[in-house]
Design goal:
The complex is a heterodimer of chains A (79) and B (413).
Chain A lengths: L2 H16 L20 H15 L5 H4 L5 H11 L1
Chain B lengths: L6 E9 L6 H10 L5 E2 L3 H5 L6 E2 L12 H5 L3 H16 L14 E6 L5 H14 L8 H5 L3 H10 L5 E2 L7 H14 L5 E8 L4 H9 L29 E9 H6 L6 E10 L12 H14 L6 E5 L6 H14 L5 E3 L2 H4 L6 H15 L1 E2 L15 E2 L5 E2 L4 E8 L3 E8 L2
Parallel strand pairs in B: 4-5, 4-6, 9-10, 9-14, 10-12
Antiparallel strand pairs in B: 1-7, 1-8, 2-3, 6-7, 8-15, 11-13, 14-15
Helix pairs in contact in B: 4-7, 8-14, 11-12
Classes of the chains: A mainly alpha (79), B alpha/beta (413).
Chain lengths: 79, 413
């Protein structure tokens, strides 16, 4: 799956879980600092991403996914 | 005329089986409409439940709240939020300019059961789909302080957020707690009341097994019949009611419109049985007497009692005895659960709103389905249609499993 398709799916998950406008969800944005996604919502986003992309996101990896771009690369590499 | 230390009510909010706000609910009560209807759910047959009726919300909270905030809340938290925002706006506090310091604002919202629906749904997910499907929001959605906590967050309350839990007295106990905070001068404004939403299989099964519920399934609107000789139990309802209470001095200084006064509160406990009321209503009478004493109200001036009366055979008669002994046989009595069903931890708060409005508007709503007054009641219970009556003071009763008794005394502004 190309990175732009991963980003598109991720935007939909972030909108569903945290109500963030998909326009705002761009690769350089930090989930916590820019998009106001809290730690509870990050867990939900990770579980939905695991289901959507067929990846495993262990907690120690989740902690490293600071930006939307980090998440896209992680999913692209590990799926 | 209120004095500086008085507690006044400046805002009202509710969402109930009769309407999505206070005005609609109050009008429906006055018109004698019932909020009870047939329950439709696949689990009724699956578990062969004997109860097939309930008083469900007139307006779904998800129609009012933003989608993302609603999905983070249990239904009991959603209804609290809906009612809190209405009360806040009704008090004229929702404008751009803050009128109360966050440190001088408290929230007290009680619930009887809390996020039972969340607990049951998440347990199902754990059993069927495993740990990773359990929501990280499970605990904040099921904790019984959740409704209070969400309202506190929304309004920016830093003066204290509390959640009394005393079964079906919780909502009234929250108002009593608010009154005490205001009288002690701890804060200037308190948003207080109760919230409940647990119309689902296990609570219905539990109440049914305790033989406390009406099984008049063929006539939903006639099932809740407090004080009637043919009553056979309560009807489960859902909803929320919240008030904005203020120190009179503070309300006057900001030019707030006042609905009335919460003049006095009384609480007591039966120490008798875990669910059954003390049959002579002695504990309830002590709560009523305390509310009148703290409110400086002579029992002969109490023109109206808004009864807890849930439509159970034992409870209604015990309460009637309490009213006769603490107030007398002169007050005009009504039992709003005949129309609203039993809102458990929200009941006391929603019915406190009705009590206050009765004083303000000089009218008492009818008790539905009162065809043959139980001869043991011996009170003037309004039946048929609403009754006009000039009121200076009225009392609202609330009692809960566990032997909790709360009485609230309201007077005109």
């Amino acid at each position: 799956m190309p990175n732009e398709d991963i980003l598109k799916e991720l935007k939909a998950i972030v909108e569903e879980v945290a109500g963030v406008d998909p326009e705002e969800v761009t690769e350089e944005k930090s989930f916590v600092d820019d998009l106001d996604v809290d730690s509870l919502s990050m867990v939900e986003i990770a579980v939905q991403a695991e289901d959507k992309f067929g990846v495993k996101i262990p907690d120690d990896q989740l902690a490293n996914l600071k930006t939307v771009g980090d998440a896209v690369s992680y999913i692209a590499t590990n799926k | 005329m209120s004095t500086a230390n008085d507690v006044v009510v400046t805002g009202l909010g509710a969402t109930t089986p009769l309407g999505g706000d206070v005005t609609t609910t109050w009008q429906a009560l006055l018109d004698g409409r019932s909020g009870v209807g047939r329950l439709e759910a696949d689990w009724l047959d699956r578990f062969d439940l004997p109860v097939r009726i309930a008083a469900q919300l007139a307006v779904e909270p998800t129609e009012v709240l933003a989608r993302v905030e609603a999905r983070r809340m249990d239904r009991c938290e959603q209804v609290a939020m809906v009612a809190a925002r209405q009360a806040w706006a009704d008090a004229g506090l929702a404008g751009e300019e803050p009128q109360v310091e966050p440190e001088r604002l408290a929230v007290v919202v009680g619930t009887g059961i809390g996020g039972a629906m969340t607990m049951l749904q998440q347990d199902d997910l754990l059993e069927t789909a495993g740990l990773r499907k359990v929501s990280p929001l499970t605990v904040p959605m099921l904790m019984p302080n959740g409704p209070a906590a969400w309202v506190g967050l929304d309004l920016g309350s830093r003066g204290g957020v509390h959640a009394p839990v005393s079964a079906c007295a919780s909502g009234a106990e929250a108002l009593a707690w608010a009154w005490r905070m205001l009288r002690a001068g701890e804060v200037d404004v308190v948003v207080a009341g109760g919230a409940e939403a647990c119309i689902t299989a296990l609570p219905l099964a539990g109440f049914a097994q305790a033989r406390t519920m009406s099984t008049r399934n063929d006539e939903p609107e006639r099932a809740s019949r407090p004080f009637d000789a043919a009553r056979d139990g309560f009807v489960l309802g859902e909803g929320a009611g919240l008030m904005v209470l203020e120190r009179a001095e503070f309300a006057r200084a900001r030019g707030a419109r006042v609905h009335g006064r919460l003049a006095g509160v009384g609480t007591s406990a039966d120490a008798y049985h875990i669910t059954g009321p003390e049959p002579e209503g002695k504990g309830a009478a002590r709560a009523i007497a305390a509310a009148l004493r703290t409110g400086g109200i002579d029992p002969k001036d109490v023109g109206h009692v808004n009864a807890h009366a849930t439509s159970t055979p034992v409870g209604d008669v015990a309460e009637a005895a309490a009213i006769r002994s603490a107030v007398g046989d002169h007050p005009v009595v009504t039992a709003p659960k005949s129309a609203l069903g039993h809102l458990l931890g929200a009941a006391g708060a929603v019915e406190a709103i009705a009590t206050l409005l009765a004083v303000r508007d000089g009218v008492v709503p009818p008790t539905l389905n009162l065809e043959n007054l139980d001869p043991a009641v011996r009170l003037d219970v309004v039946a048929g249609e609403a009754r006009r009556v000039e009121l200076t003071a009225a009392v609202n009763d609330s009692f809960g499993f566990g032997g909790h008794n709360v009485a609230l005394a309201f007077t005109s502004a």
